[in-house]
Design goal:
single chain; alpha+beta; 6-stranded mixed beta sheet; 5 helices; 25 strands; about 45% strand; rod-shaped; binds zinc ion; Nmd3; Nmd3_N
Length: about 350
């Protein structure tokens, strides 16, 4: 056998040519002279092979990864070692150096390449949506039959901020471009449906209440027939608050706790504890605010009667003795609430 290129004999052959002629034009790796990397100047995500990836990386690491991703190594190379170096970074351009050592057909080779990595700052699609004020959901924070108090707004603001913080790890549209402060309540504009629903749930978890979603068609893409929807989610928190007196199914109950799904309270006639599922919120009637509760003094006691002073006119009023008040003494202060001209002792 002789090499068809150089004619030499007695050499290791690769097909019809000798190893020397083969290696003359052989390259262990291919790498483009110029590599472009797009980075979102807002959130630092990188565009890699057409996809935005979100994890934060320092600039050096971004350059190394871009080099790695663009190296194509020949199948003939064995025992390869690749060394990447950044020579210098000038502005957005990094001059890099790639060195490869490896074996090809038993011959050790060493090869170097120069490469320029250019970092282009752009804005990723979610960030450009955020900058343009795009939103998919409006959370309408409202109270039933009353105005929302400033401390409730403060608490709601915190819950919204906390939810957005947490969701930011999984949802790039977890942002609130606008809060509309209306007389009837706040409207929180939220980037995505997913995070909007989380915000609504978390508000309900804190305040109790009822959630209702109303999707609205905003526009329609004529070519695809696909609609752009937004969802308005109303979170209606109860009219009553802790210590208020409510009426539900003929029971008069003093509220002791409101959680995400139920109202807990004490029946003021029997002093027994009751739970009312919040899905019945529309059938719960607020009858007295906690500010209507009065304090008065016990003036006499018998096994069946407890006599108190009516704070309105200082007349003595006999009330039926209840087990919970047996340990009280004359002169002790008690709380009362007047409902329909009847006075109830409450704890
Ligand atoms: Zn040859
Ligand atoms: Zn971004």
């Amino acid at each position: 056998m002789f090499c068809i290129e150089c004619g030499s004999k007695d050499k290791q052959m690769v097909g019809e040519i000798c190893i020397d002629c083969f290696l003359k034009d052989f390259q262990m790796i291919e790498i483009p002279k110029n590599i472009n990397v797009e980075i979102c100047s807002h959130c630092n995500s990188r565009l890699e092979e057409g996809k935005w990836s979100e994890s934060y990386l320092p600039e050096d690491e971004i350059i190394y990864r871009a080099l790695e991703r663009n190296i194509k190594i020949s199948d003939l190379v064995e025992n390869e070692e690749i060394n990447l170096e950044i020579d210098q970074i000038k502005g957005t351009i990094a001059n890099c150096f790639v060195e490869v050592v490896g074996d090809v057909y038993g011959v050790s080779l060493d090869e170097t390449h120069d490469c320029e990595v250019r970092i282009k700052k752009t804005v990723c699609p979610p960030c450009s949506k955020m900058q343009s004020g795009y939103y998919e959901t409006v959370i309408q924070f409202r109270a039933d039959n009353r105005e929302i108090k400033s401390e409730e707004y403060a608490k709601a603001d915190k819950i919204v901020a906390r939810t957005l913080d947490k969701q930011a790890k999984v949802d790039k549209l977890a942002y609130c471009p606008q809060v509309a402060k209306l007389k009837e309540g706040y409207d929180y504009y939220i980037g995505s449906f997913k995070t909007g629903r989380k915000v609504a749930e978390n508000l309900k978890d804190e305040f109790g209440g009822v959630i209702k979603e109303s999707p609205r068609l905003i526009s329609e893409d004529k070519s695809t027939g696909k609609g752009l929807y937004r969802i308005w989610i109303s979170v209606r928190i109860p009219e009553f608050e802790n210590n208020d007196i409510i009426e539900f199914e003929d029971r008069i109950i003093q509220v002791s706790d409101i959680d995400k799904n139920r109202v807990v309270g004490i029946d003021i006639k029997t002093n027994k504890k009751h739970n009312i599922p919040l899905k019945n919120m529309d059938n719960i009637k607020l009858i007295k605010k906690s500010t209507d509760i009065e304090t008065t003094t016990i003036i006499s006691m018998s096994p069946k009667i407890i006599q108190i002073l009516d704070p309105a006119d200082y007349s003595a009023v006999d009330l039926e003795m209840k087990d919970d008040f047996k340990d009280y003494n004359i002169g002790d202060e008690v709380k009362i609430i007047k409902i329909d001209n009847y006075i109830y002792l409450i704890k």
